Structure formats: C-alpha cells, structure tokens
Amino acid sequence: MTFELPLAAPAWQPLPDLPGATLRYAPRAIADPDAWFARLRDEIAWERHRIRLYGREVDSPRLSSWVGDADAVYTYSRTRFVPHPWTPALGALRDAVSRWCGAPFNSVLCNLYRSGADSMGWHSDAEPELGPEPVIASLSFGAVRRFRLRHKRDASLSLDLPLAPGSLFVMAGTTQTHYRHDLPKTARVAAPRVNLTFRAIAAS
Ligand SMILES: O=C(O)CCC(=O)C(=O)O
Ligand SMILES: [Fe+2]
C-alpha cells in the first residue's frame, strides 16, 4: 500500500474569531486516515511518559513518543526528552505539514489516547525552546475527540472543536500566550486516537 500526500494546500474551514488567537482547521487534510492510523500505531515507539502533577510524579494518561532531529531536545513537564529518529510515516507527514503551513518543523510530539479514558490536561505549549509565537500543527487519526481552547483570563472566549480523523489543526501567533487547551476524558469513546503535534524547537 502506498501513502499519497497531496502537494496542494488543504481546504481550510472557517473557525469562530477568537481575539489573540490565530487558528486554522482543515477537516480533511489527509486522505485514507484509517490506513495512516494503523501505520502510526504500529510504527511509533509508544512510551509511558511520567509527568509531574501537584508535585507528584505520575504516569501521564496516554502513551507518547518524542520524535525529531537529533538536536531537537525538549523539556516538558520538567522532564528532558531526547528525540527518537524520524520514522518513514512521520517524515512524510512532516514534509507535507511543513509545506502546507510554511513552517520548518523539526520535531513532533506523538500521543496515543488508548480510549476515552485517556486525556490531556489544560496547558499551553509555551516552553522556551518553542520561541515566542510558535506554529504548532496538529494531525488527528482514529477516534474523534473534543479539543477545547479557553482564554487564560476570560472564560467566555473559548472553542470546543471535535477533531476529525485526517484533520489538520494549526495554532500560531499569540495563541499560546493567551489561551490554554485540553483534551477531556469521555465515557462515550472506546476507540483509540493518535495525535501528532509538529513543532519547531530551537537547538539546545
Ligand atoms: O491531542 C490533542 O489534540 C492535543 C495534544 C496537545 O495539546 C499537545 O500535544 O500539546
Ligand atoms: Fe498542547
């Protein structure tokens, strides 16, 4: 089976205007998302990352893998991650997403939500090595899950977006400065989901 990625930019769908946020959403950026899901699930070296929660070290509620160029070392939740090398699928997706976003991504955080019991808590992707106005490009495969975005000081400014399989969601500009995002648990979803967030990390 071959995996074709289009050269042309995907069709962007309008999103509600949120002051201080720069967002783009293309619900069908990647064709045949189920085949990509199976390939990513099998090809990525999934790990149980430890995170710090209220001062205690616990297993994060999902599986993850940090992948990128050798110098793209990332500190997340006070843990230093040295990247795994690019896999063929992740390299092909990086090239397509970099072209569509006009941004030179050198790394990707891969997350596997094994079921609706797995989640990601409220955070902004504002680590210093991402720079002041990072472009973060997110691809989703498998189960549809709700992605929520909320302004840090004004909770009336928010977005609740079901991320479709094969979709591309981009956060840029000052989004991380002014907003947090999460992926809540849900009892309604039993199926797994893979999410890839492509990032540009300053070499350390
Ligand atoms: O799974 C998602 O859609 C969100 C992932 C995320 O926020 C992150 O990797 O920083
Ligand atoms: Fe994030």
Topology pattern, helix = H, strand = E:
EHEEEEEHEEEEEEHEE
Number of DSSP helical runs: 3
Query: Which small-molecule ligands are present, each listed once?
Result: 2-oxoglutaric acid, fe (ii) ion
Arithmetic mean of pLDDT: 95
Strand order in space, largest sheet: 1-12-9-14-7-4
> How does the major sheet shape up?
6 strands, antiparallel
Please identify the oligomeric state.
single chain
Q: Estimate nothing, just give the exact number of structural domains.
A: 1
Identify the overall geometry. globular
Tell me the name of the CATH homologous superfamily: Alpha-ketoglutarate-dependent dioxygenase AlkB-like
Range of helix content: 10-25%
Sheet-strand content, in percent, reads 35-45%
Q: State the secondary-structure class.
A: mainly beta
- From the 3D structure, determine the CATH topology: Jelly Rolls
Name of the CATH class: Mainly Beta
Strand runs, count: 14
CATH architecture type: Sandwich
Specify Rg, calculated over alpha carbons. 16 Å
Low-confidence stretches: none
Distance between the termini: 38 Å
Keywords: Dioxygenase, DNA damage, DNA repair, Iron, Magnesium, Metal-binding, Oxidoreductase
Domain Fe2OG dioxygenase: 104-202
GO molecular function, one term: hydrolase activity
InterPro entries: AlkB-like, AlkB-like_sf, ALKBH3, Oxoglu/Fe-dep_dioxygenase_dom
Tell me briefly what this model is.
The chain is mainly β. The chain contains three helices and 14 strands.
What features would you describe in this structure?
Residues 104-202 form the Fe2OG dioxygenase domain. GO terms for molecular function: catalytic activity, acting on DNA; demethylase activity; dioxygenase activity; hydrolase activity; metal ion binding; oxidoreductase activity, acting on paired donors, with incorporation or reduction of molecular oxygen. Keywords: Dioxygenase, DNA damage, DNA repair, Iron, Magnesium, Metal-binding, Oxidoreductase. Its cofactor is Fe(2+). InterPro entries: AlkB-like (IPR027450), AlkB-like_sf (IPR037151), ALKBH3 (IPR032854), Oxoglu/Fe-dep_dioxygenase_dom (IPR005123). 33% of the residues are buried. The protein is mostly beta strands and 204 residues long. The strands form four sheets. Strands 1-12-9-14-7-4 form a six-stranded antiparallel beta sheet. A four-stranded antiparallel beta sheet has the order 8-13-10-11. The radius of gyration is 16 Å and the shape is globular. The chain has one domain (22-199): Jelly Rolls (Sandwich), CATH 2.60.120.590. The model has no long low-confidence stretch (mean pLDDT 95). The longest helix is centred in the middle third of the chain and has 14 residues, at 88-101. The protein has helices at 33-43, 88-101, 175-178; strands at residues 22-26, 50-53, 56-59, 63-68, 74-76, 79-81, 107-113, 120-123, 136-142, 145-151, 158-163, 168-172, 179-183, 193-199. The chain has three helices and 14 strands. It binds 2-oxoglutaric acid and fe (ii) ion. Fe (ii) ion binds next to loops. The site of fe (ii) ion has 3 residues, from loops.
